[in-house]
Design brief:
Elements: H1 24-39, H2 48-55, H3 59-66, H4 75-84, H5 89-100, H6 114-125, E1 132-135, E2 141-144, H7 146-151, H8 162-168, H9 170-175, H10 179-196, H11 201-212, H12 214-220, E3 234-239, E4 247-255, E5 264-270, H13 279-282, H14 296-313, H15 319-355
Antiparallel strand pairs: 1-2, 1-5, 3-4, 4-5
Helix pairs in contact: 2-3, 5-10
Length: 361
């Protein structure tokens, strides 16, 4: 080595992985190298040198990639990297988002106005009697229909979050049949999101909470190379108190509304049976979902909260200013209510006089 020349970085071909630190594309690339080595029967991870040679780049270039660099990436190089690492469709999509499409440092604030939220709420309501809900980029619940509130009341709680409930709440561990499987799938969703928003504080906070749980932490450190974009089309079983804790099999359908980027609209449909046999539904036979009846009390409660959400949507951020706006709107509503009552009274008097028999001449 020439005097003064920088020493090359060591080739981390066989260095043990640190699963707890796997966030974003640097950690996933290392995990994918390890899995590729297993698939090839090497008994060790692919080395950085082997990957670099396979994609036609220098070892230093690839080392920088695993250190967090995002160089200009040609499609041919990206495809060669995916092929070398033996990536599946979801892993490939995560790689594209992180290295070619350009990962965003943090999740952008939504530019949607209240009209968009109201229209999406109508979409959820039109799914009845099927439960449906809307989540933002970090799985906070931002909308739901009456069936969803009836079957999963936790969505009505302040700051309700799908992944936080599914992975950390005791009731979810009872309601999900084979909870470990579902928790593993949610871990894959979090890893995928970390490639897109590697430094977003809300996402990192959620991941930190999940990893701090002993059982979830173990799942995070297992199968560390797996990622998933969504749970669209997943069949699963649940035990719900509102349905007498009888196992029901359902399917989740995930939609990505273009009017609210980053959000997910999910519709839960019954698979056609509560015994895991979908033959009747597949044969086109008419079936009735076990949640066809939505209690009126829940419907009224949810409708009221939808109105509250609509009122909150365009209020000022400052609580003091928001209270002033609410007071002004209340005064206006009282005036309108008083005028409406007066009109109703006049109509009642008019209707009463018309129904009074006229005296004979």
């Amino acid at each position: 080595m020439a005097v003064g020349a920088p020493a090359p970085f060591p080739d981390h071909g066989s260095e043990p992985l640190s699963p707890g630190q796997l966030l974003g594309h640097p950690g996933l690339l290392r995990a994918w190298r390890a899995v590729a080595g297993e698939k090839l029967g090497l008994g060790r991870p692919l080395s950085q040198t082997e990957v670099a040679e396979a994609i036609g780049r220098s070892r230093g270039w690839y080392q920088n990639l695993e250190r967090g660099a995002r160089p200009k990436m040609e499609r041919e190089v990206l495809d060669a990297l995916a092929k070398t690492l033996r990536l599946g469709p979801d892993e490939y999509q995560a790689l594209v988002l992180a290295l070619m499409d350009g990962a965003l440092t943090t999740i952008p604030a939504s530019l949607a106005d209240p009209t968009v939220r109201r229209d999406l709420q109508q979409l959820l309501d039109h799914q009845l009697p099927a439960p449906a809900y809307l989540t933002d980029q970090v799985w906070n619940i931002i909308g739901y229909n009456t069936a969803m509130a009836a079957l999963w009341p936790w969505v009505r709680e302040p700051r309700a979050n799908l992944i936080r409930w599914a992975m950390l709440s005791p009731e979810a561990r009872v309601q999900y049949v084979d909870w470990d499987h579902h928790a593993t799938e949610y871990v894959k969703l979090l890893r995928f999101a970390s490639t897109r928003y590697p430094h977003d504080p809300d996402l990192l906070r959620l991941i930190t909470e999940v990893k701090a749980d002993p059982r979830c932490g173990q799942l995070w450190d297992t199968d560390v190379a797996a990622v998933s974009r969504s749970r669209d089309g997943h069949y699963f079983q649940m035990l719900l108190p509102s349905l007498d804790n009888q196992p029901i099999e359902v399917i989740s359908h995930v939609l990505f509304p273009a009017s609210l980027p980053g959000s997910r609209a999910t519709v839960i449909t019954w698979a056609g049976t509560d015994k895991g046999d979908t033959s009747a539904a597949l044969a086109g036979q008419e079936t009735t979902a076990p949640w066809s009846f939505v209690p009126p009390a829940v419907t009224e409660y949810t409708a009221r909260h939808h109105l509250m959400d609509e009122f909150r949507a365009d209020l000022p951020a400052s609580p003091a200013e928001a209270i002033q706006v609410c007071d002004a709107r209340l005064r206006n509503l009282r005036k309108r209510a008083e005028a409406l009552i007066q009109v109703r009274d006049e109509l009642s008097k008019s209707n009463g006089s018309e129904n009074t028999p006229r005296a004979s001449a």
